[in-house]
Amino acid sequence: MAGARRKSLQSRQVGSLLIFLCLSVGGATTIRYSVAEEMESGSFVANVAKDLGLEVGKLAARAARLVSDSNKMHFRLHRKTGDLFVKEKLDRESLCGKADPCVLRFEIVLVEPLQSFRAEVRVFDINDNAPVFLNKEPLLKIPESTPLGSRFPLQSAQDLDVGLNGLQNYTLSANAYFHLHTRFRSHGPKYAELVLNKPLDREEQPEVNLTITAVDGGSPPKSGTAHIRVVVLDVNDHVPQFSRLVYRAKVPENSPNGSLVAIVTAMDLDEGTNKAITYSLAQNPEAILQTFQMDSQTGEIRLRGPLDFEAVETYDIDVQATDGGGLSTHSKVLVEVVDVNDNPPEVMVSSVSSPLPEDSPPQTVVALFTIRDRDIRMGGKVACFLRKELPFAVKHTFGNSYSLVTDRSLDREEVSGYNITLVAKDTGPPSMSTETVIEVLISDVNDNPPVFREDSYILTVRENNSPAVFIGKVHAEDLDLGENAQITYSLLPPKSGDLSVFAYISINSENGKLYALRTMDYEAIQDFQFVVKATDGGFLPLSSQVTVRVVVLDDNDNRPLILYPLQNGTLPCNDLVPRSAEAGYLVTKVVAVDGDSGENSWLSYHLLKATDLGLFSVQRQNGEIRMLRQISERDPRMHKLIILVQDHGQPALSTTVSLNILLVDGFSEPYLLFQDPSKHSTKIKYREKFTIQEHFYDDCNFSNNLVQGRGNGSLSQPCPYEMCSATGTGNSEFRFLKRFMPNFPFPHATGEIKTEAASSLPPNSDRSKPQRSADRDQVSDDYM
Predict the structure, then answer these.
(1) Segment 612-651, tens digit of pLDDT
(2) CA dihedral sign of residues 127, 128, 133, 136
(3) Contact status, residue 234 vs residue 180, Cβ threshold 8 Å
(4) What's the CA gap between 6 and 523, in Å, rounded?
(5) Is 346 exposed, middle or buried (0-12, 13-18, 19+ CB in 10 A)?
(6) What separation in angstroms does the CA of 110 have from each of 44, 67, 84, 114, 368?
(7) Mode of pairing for the β-strands spanning 543-553 and 456-462
(8) pLDDT at 238 over 70
(9) Is 278 exposed, middle or buried (0-12, 13-18, 19+ CB in 10 A)?
(10) With bands split at pLDDT 50, 70 and 90, how would you rate the model's confidence at 325?
(11) 3-state SS assignment for residue 277
């Protein structure tokens, strides 16, 4: 039943004490609430969102949280509803002791943007503690000669509650000798004195037993009792007297244990043992007994425990002097604790934005913190600054609250994080300071494009390569981090719109490796270039470009091509030499070209077989066939020569050509009779052109093709030729071979083959160092 009444009473108290006070909403907002102690965990306090003027859900969206000024948070916030609840049962006496009012302070911190609101919750006292006497059975020795009206101080009852719920009054059990008189201390609880109403007579009643009751002002009130035993002493005529009614002393709060506080003295006019005085700390609260100690013989009061001005500023000490006969007297010692600057400022960081984007503008809030100096009077003003020169600054917001903001632009690639040392320093004396380190990491933004290692790349690939062969790679680096530094490579289409580069080259988008997609042909294309783009993975991607040139290296994959004499087998290739020819006489010339380049196209001519090896010679460099000696009567009429034409590739490729040489006395028609005359009834003179384009050669019949092609051989320059012969006479006569200049443009774009000067080697020259020489002699215009 009593429990139900108490719970009902507490409910009414909670209802009456739960008051919301909002002073202002703005830059220096402080919202205030009140609750009663002993509220159960989960009890509703207030709706913070409503009081801050925020929409429901904003607290969750802005990651609201509570930051306590102390080391413990006594409330919790429901972000979705904005309701503030009691986290655990509140005990005002444990939180604040005798201090009144009891206020719990904290901050409500929001992010995006970073913002804080100060809040206070006042915890009201309920009557949950009864007055208690530390000494349940005090003993008083009072002489029987004590005059009426004498007063005897009693120990104070201790009540942890405050205000009306604290100690209010004392009552004494009914008796014939004493009544109570309640007195007040300047600092401390009320105490009672026994006042003698009737003379004591030890012979009549040597002992008086009393009951004292301490009552608080709660509803219903609570009480505590002690049983006083009064022993009546025999006559001791004089009571000790202190030299002062009140002693005063000042003690610095940083005084060590054992420091002298004050000395009290008392005198007694009696003689003998009744004159001997003993000093003691009389009925004092437990806090005083733990802080001070007294020498019973000298009256010296010294420190027993530490002093703290910020906790207690003054002490009211009762001292007692007792003579040998048991008579005692009391006095007061008022001790004033002197504040010294013994507490450095405290920095309490409530919120830090880390990591911080490197593109944060100046004045971006990085952290919120407050500074508290417990030495309010001695410490003076507190200055806050940064120990090092950093791109940050301390900005005062309101009261003792500060913010750390950016002072200039940041660059993660230069500095990826900061250990910011905040220094809070008071003015003393002596000056004291404290340092707090705030770690702020700088997050990356995509502000650096990829950079290639080279300004341009030149890669080589040998013709006749396998498809998808690796030919090289490009590499770019990005100073950013994470996705901002992940690089993707791609090929850019040419500005001309020609997408043929994608048929030749592919690139690995992840590592920049380049591959030839098809087999290269040097005779078709010698080099080409394209543009590679490197793009990072940022939200707004950055990119850079580089030009890559691919050079195709020649392989010796083309045999020498014989332009003359013709080897198509349709007409015999015969040359006529008069028997009157002298040594050195130019009989004819083997004309050949090679589609390769460099050493692979340098040609040399060799006489492989002959009817008479001593009659003819072949110039190695230009393929000219000349007489070695004068013709004799014994030399046969017809000679067959096999000429080997060989390039200088590794390995070398070669071609052979056969030709017939007739020794005649003159160039009359009977010597040219090699075909059936019945097949040719008319004489036809024809001239046709033959052409060699790129490295693919048609069936080269010198009589019906015009030579124009890229390559090296025995032709000294781009030389089209016409060959004229006569048919229908029953013989084949090579009338003339003369130069023909057609009217058409030379191909000059990359990939087309141009006719180059013939490569030749001088006699007895070193193969490893071939010399290129122009063909000085051309086939005679006429063999007449």
Answers:
(1) 999 999 999 999 999 999 999 899 999 999 999 999 998 9
(2) positive
(3) no
(4) 108
(5) middle
(6) 21, 11, 15, 6, 11
(7) parallel
(8) yes
(9) middle
(10) confident
(11) strand
